[in-house]
């Protein structure tokens, strides 16, 4: 079982942006010294959620130069917010800079406010995402002598006459990682021999207290498609090696009681930040074109904690994760800096990095 770090902190204002970026750089460097396998970054805009996520490809390249042994991933790139040419180019460039140690999570996005900023109708986000991915495949496959690739997809238009540069390091292109929640996404990952993100809930309810039930359901569907695809044993093993389950908040302390108390401090601060952004979300959803159809529970509810949090003493965390390892989940993605990144939050995040590395990972990495 692999362990990766998800840099998902929040800034509450422009005066905090630079310090947050420098603190997350230091947090990532600590993870690189503690036997973690990858650093994952989100892709978000405008709302204070991770200022460096406005172009996380740039930040990943910056980190990759400092820690060339690490893998880098995205959880996840909001595909409708990217012109397919820039999407393909950036992935190829980072694929080269990391020597192929790249995992590109892809999804259709969740935030109407971001869609408005990029002139994407929220109702069309799924279709634009699918079309962008299909266009990117055409661009990656195009040779200079091939006919032009014409782009006409929502706000994105163009005509590519030559080819995407640089060429990819990975044959074809870097591994994409769909979220295995829809049959089409699971099949895309499986048929290409790619890993996938395995969720712990089933829409329309985003939360619950039985996450493993959902993880097993989605994982079994994805693995079934993967085995049906006729890949070699090596391709199947490589895909499962990076198949990922994500926890938005991972917090480890010496005792279960301490971990729960500190988790609640983290979640109260996180929820306050979310509520602070609610005014802008309401503006974004003021018309039918951008109204969401699902709602995430308050972070202090047991439904949210049960789905998105992993916490406890090292022994409790090992006990929790063992069934996931036995199921075949290859990578645990750990949100260790969730919420506003105060000095205390960073201390707690570093505490978790150290305890996971020293006392949890040796029992599960094998």
From TrEMBL:
InterPro entries: Bact_Lucif_Oxidored, Luciferase-like_dom, Luciferase-like_sf. Residues 1-329 form the Luciferase-like domain. Keywords: Flavoprotein, Monooxygenase, Oxidoreductase. GO terms for molecular function: monooxygenase activity; oxidoreductase activity, acting on paired donors, with incorporation or reduction of molecular oxygen. The keyword Cell inner membrane does not apply. GO terms for cellular component: cytosol. SUPFAM superfamilies: Bacterial luciferase-like (SSF51679). Belongs to the bacterial luciferase oxidoreductase family. This is LLM class flavin-dependent oxidoreductase. It comes from Novosphingobium pentaromativorans.
